[in-house]
């Protein structure tokens, strides 16, 4: 029996997935791709988006075959008790690692852009206060709040119109100059920004209207890809690949470059809109970590488990010594996440062979 606090609609689940995917990775994606592929970064996003769309469809087909089972149940069903539990353990470790890395990166972003003198531990504590509150209220509340963040996505894209006259299409030319092989070889650097689609496999049993998940997962994947393509292409056309390579947070730099007569500093509004989006990504993974552990080990003491997960996340988040270490771990996490997504998609074909 699903807890009423965790019952959601299919649309809310898709919004939850979008909230998990759009957040932290996009802040550094344009500059990371510029360092690897020059002005062809947006083509890397197109290629990665197409692959993720294909994998997302297979994931949707899998959960459609097992509408009342989460990925934790499906793994045991397809691979047996011991192998299934092993895969579940790897999956939970991955989610915990992503939560820790995301929260640390979020704290670093706040420290660099706003609170230079504030200790990271203090910033991290304030990040998790609203997160823990919403986690105690349940998945339904988290999804409702995530719905509001879609408006923030649209608002941020609209702010690009204020500075579009300063962009140069020539900065994007010639197309595919870096070469097709280079573009495909650097797709892993874009994968971190696409992580999050795997979380829908945890909560699909909580959906009250299980109808045509393939359609909605496809819409989610296309939405994410288009958003990233716009951001990467726009920042490249605005700054050029040479300057873009030297900028740590291109999205933040875009907003600082916008001059509006009435609004002296538009970057303050960017912070007001984007920080909740980044927190939404952390929140999605934190809740997923807590929910999976509670389900797998049948833990009923919610507050104690939330406290334990919080402490573990804080400890793991302290492992990177600086921002450069965080970027290195993010690359590893992208590969680990892509492997998990690939494994879940592969499980669909295993389910066809085993007919379970």
From TrEMBL:
The chain crosses the membrane at residues 12-30, 42-64, 76-97, 109-129, 141-164, 187-204, 216-239, 268-292, 304-320, 332-353. InterPro entries: Spore_GerAB. This is GerAB/ArcD/ProY family transporter. One of its GO terms (cellular component) is membrane. The keyword Transmembrane helix applies. It comes from the Bacteria. It is found in: Membrane. It is a multi-pass membrane protein. One of its GO terms (biological process) is spore germination. Keywords: Germination, Membrane, Transmembrane, Transmembrane helix, Transport. The lineage of its organism: Bacteria, Bacillati, Bacillota, Clostridia, Eubacteriales. It comes from Clostridium muellerianum. Belongs to the amino acid-polyamine-organocation (APC) superfamily. Spore germination protein (SGP) (TC 2.A.3.9) family. Its main location: membrane. Pfam families: Spore_permease (PF03845).
């Amino acid at each position: 029996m699903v807890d009423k606090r965790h019952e959601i609609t299919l649309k809310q689940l898709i919004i939850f997935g979008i909230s998990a995917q759009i957040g932290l990775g996009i802040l550094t994606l344009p500059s990371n791709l510029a360092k690897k592929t020059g002005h062809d970064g947006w083509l890397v996003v197109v290629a990665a988006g197409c692959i993720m769309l294909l994998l997302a469809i297979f994931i949707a087909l899998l959960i459609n075959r097992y509408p009342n089972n989460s990925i934790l149940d499906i793994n045991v069903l397809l691979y047996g008790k011991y192998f299934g539990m092993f895969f579940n353990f790897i999956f939970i470790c991955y989610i915990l690692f992503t939560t820790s890395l995301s929260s640390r990166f979020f704290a670093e972003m706040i420290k660099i852009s706003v609170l230079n003198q504030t200790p990271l531990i203090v910033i991290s504590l304030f990040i998790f206060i609203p997160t823990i509150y919403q986690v105690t209220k349940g998945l339904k509340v988290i999804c409702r709040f995530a719905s509001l963040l879609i408006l923030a996505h649209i608002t941020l894209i609209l702010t690009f119109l204020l500075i579009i006259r300063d962009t140069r299409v020539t900065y994007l030319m010639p197309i595919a100059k870096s070469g097709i092989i280079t573009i495909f070889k650097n797709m892993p650097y874009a994968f971190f920004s696409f992580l999050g689609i795997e979380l829908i496999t945890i909560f699909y049993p909580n959906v009250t209207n299980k109808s045509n998940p393939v359609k909605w997962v496809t819409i989610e994947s296309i939405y994410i890809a288009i958003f990233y393509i716009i951001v990467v292409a726009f920042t490249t056309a605005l700054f050029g690949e040479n300057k873009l390579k030297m900028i740590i947070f291109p999205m933040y730099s875009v907003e600082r470059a916008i001059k509006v007569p009435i609004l002296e500093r538009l970057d303050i509004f960017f912070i007001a809109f984007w920080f909740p989006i980044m927190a939404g990504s952390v929140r999605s993974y934190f809740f997923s970590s807590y929910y999976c552990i509670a389900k797998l080990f049948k833990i009923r003491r919610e507050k104690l488990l939330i406290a334990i997960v919080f402490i573990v996340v804080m400890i793991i988040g302290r492992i990177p010594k600086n921002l450069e270490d965080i970027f290195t771990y993010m690359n590893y996490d992208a590969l680990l996440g892509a492997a998990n997504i690939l494994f879940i998609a592969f499980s669909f074909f295993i389910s066809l062979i085993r007919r379970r």
